[in-house]
Amino acid sequence: MVTTTDENRERLRSAGLRVTTPRLAVLTLLSQGGHHTVDELTDAVRARIGAVSTQAIYDVLAALVDTGMARLIEPAGSARRYEARVADNHHHLVCRKCGRIEDVDCAVGEAPCLAPSDAHGFLLDEAEVTWWGRCPTCRASS
């Protein structure tokens, strides 16, 4: 879902957020795909716009997650990761060796696409599934 700078400006405005240089830079980077750590995003934003604090990046990411423009994933034993793929109920594959993360489309039907044996009265709207293993590169190197 690569979007243009103008599209990202409009997305920020539509979400009720002011268009700031750090917000625009982070949203543009996320829209290029992938699962990014705060450190990766901070380095990339600094390369684009110059000085920006790590706290500013955290604040931008919190606003993007709160407005539904970004998704936070937290693989066990790994840094938090952020992605822009939010309009669906996809899942993730994580390599135990190198940490590579790949998206996996929802396996069955619509969200939450999986149902627990007992929902305990909850109205379910999402399921998060993470599969763990070794990616093809790590398997080939061992």
UniProtKB/TrEMBL annotation:
Keywords: Cytoplasm, DNA-binding, Iron, Metal-binding, Repressor, Transcription, Transcription regulation, Zinc. InterPro entries: FUR (IPR002481), Fur_C (IPR043135), WH-like_DNA-bd_sf (IPR036388), WH_DNA-bd_sf (IPR036390). Coiled coil: none annotated. The keyword Iron-sulfur does not apply. The keyword rRNA processing does not apply. It comes from the Bacteria. It is found in: Cytoplasm. Pfam families: FUR (PF01475). Belongs to the Fur family. This is Fur family transcriptional regulator FurA3.
